[in-house]
Amino acid sequence: MTDQEVWGFIDYQAHSPSFNMALDEALLDWHSEGVIPPVIRFYGWDPATLSIGYFQKVEKEIDLDAVKKHHLGFVRRPTGGRGVLHEHELTYSVIVTEEHPKMPSSVTEAYRVISAGILKGFHHLGLDAYFAVPHTDEEKSKLKNPRSSVCFDAPSWYELVVEGRKVAGSAQTRQKGIILQHGSILLDLDEEKLFSLFKYRNERVKERMQKALKSKAVAINDLSPTRVTIDMARNAFKQGFEEGLGIELKPYELTADQLAYVNDLAKRRYKSTEWNFKR
C-alpha cells in the first residue's frame, strides 16, 4: 500500500503545435475547476516546431522565411520566455494548484520544487545534473534583462545544468490559481537550424551568440556515453518526477468530450493569426 498522492500522467505522444498548447491550457482550466487531479504530461511535436514566448515580437525577432524553409510548425506559448526549437526532445508540462502543500508561493521556489523531478530524471540517465543558483549581483542582474531571443542562451534561477551547461529550459505561468510549468529536455540539438530562425542585427552578432550557446547549453546525447532515446528519457523522467515530488503517477485518459474541447481550442486560439502574430 502506498500513501503517496496520485497525480494524473499523460504519456508521450507527438501532436501539432496548436494541439500541444491547447491541451496544456485545457488541463490548467480543468484542474482549476477541480475536474482533474494535478497532471504531468510528456509530449513531442509533429511537425518539429518553433515556439515563442507570450511576449515576443514576431516581426522583430523571428525569421518566418526560415521557419517555412525548414517546414517547421509555429506557435506562441501561453508562457513567457524565448524562442525554442522543439525537435529532438522530450517536452513536459506540470499542472498543479498554487495551493498545493508542496508548492511554495514564490515562482522561483515553485520552479525549483517542480524541477526536482527533472533533476532526478537526469540522474537516472547517469548524468550529473545540478541546480545552478546565481550568487553575485552581476549574475542576478543578467537574469533580469536577457538580451537574447533564444531560450537556451541564459541559465536562470535554479536552471538545470550538467558540467556547467544548461540541459533543460522551462517556463511558468500562473492563471486561475494554477501553476503551469512546461519545458524542453533536449536529446539532440541542431544548432545551425536553431540559429537560422532568428533575426540578428548583423552576421557578427549571430556568430557571437552561436559561439556563446555552445558554451552555455548542451543536449543529453552530447553528454551521455550511451545514446538516449525518447523511450529511455520517458522512463527516466517519469520515475524522476515520482521521486522528486514524492507522488505516484497514474495514466490519465481524456474523454471524447475533453478531446473535442482541446481540438476546438487549438483551432480557435493556437492556430489563429491573431494569437500567434499580433503582439
UniProtKB/TrEMBL annotation:
Other known facts: In the reaction, the free carboxyl group of octanoic acid is attached via an amide linkage to the epsilon-amino group of a specific lysine residue of lipoyl domains of lipoate-dependent enzymes. The reaction proceeds via an octanoyl-thioester enzyme intermediate.
GO biological process, one term: lipoate biosynthetic process
Function according to Swiss-Prot or TrEMBL: Catalyzes the transfer of endogenously produced octanoic acid from octanoyl-acyl-carrier-protein onto the lipoyl domain of GcvH, an intermediate carrier during protein lipoylation.
Highest taxon listed in the record's lineage: Bacteria
This protein's record includes keyword Transferase: yes
Biological or metabolic pathway of the protein: Protein modification; protein lipoylation via endogenous pathway; protein N(6)-(lipoyl)lysine from octanoyl-[acyl-carrier-protein]
Swiss-Prot/TrEMBL site (Lowers pKa of active site Cys) positions: K166
PANTHER family given in the database record: OCTANOYL-[GCVH]:PROTEIN N-OCTANOYLTRANSFERASE (PTHR43679:SF2), OCTANOYLTRANSFERASE LIPM-RELATED (PTHR43679)
Family statement drawn from the similarity comment of this UniProt entry: Belongs to the octanoyltransferase LipM family.
Coiled coil: none
Main enzyme class: transferase
Reactions catalysed according to its record: octanoyl-[ACP] + L-lysyl-[protein] = N(6)-octanoyl-L-lysyl-[protein] + holo-[ACP] + H(+)
Active site per UniProt: C151 (acyl-thioester intermediate)
EC number of the protein: 2.3.1.181
Residue ranges of every copy of the BPL/LPL catalytic domain listed in the record: 34-249
HAMAP family with a match to the protein in the record: LipM
Keywords: Acyltransferase, Ligase, Transferase
Pfam family of the protein (one): LplA-B_cat
Protein name: Octanoyltransferase LipM
MF GO annotations: ligase activity; lipoyl(octanoyl) transferase activity
Gene3D superfamilies the UniProt entry points to: Bira Bifunctional Protein, Domain 2 (3.30.930.10)
InterPro entries: aa-tRNA-synth_II/BPL/LPL (IPR045864), BPL_LPL_catalytic (IPR004143), LipM (IPR024898), Octanoyltrans_LipM/LipL (IPR050664)
Assembly description: Monomer.
Source organism: Oikeobacillus pervagus
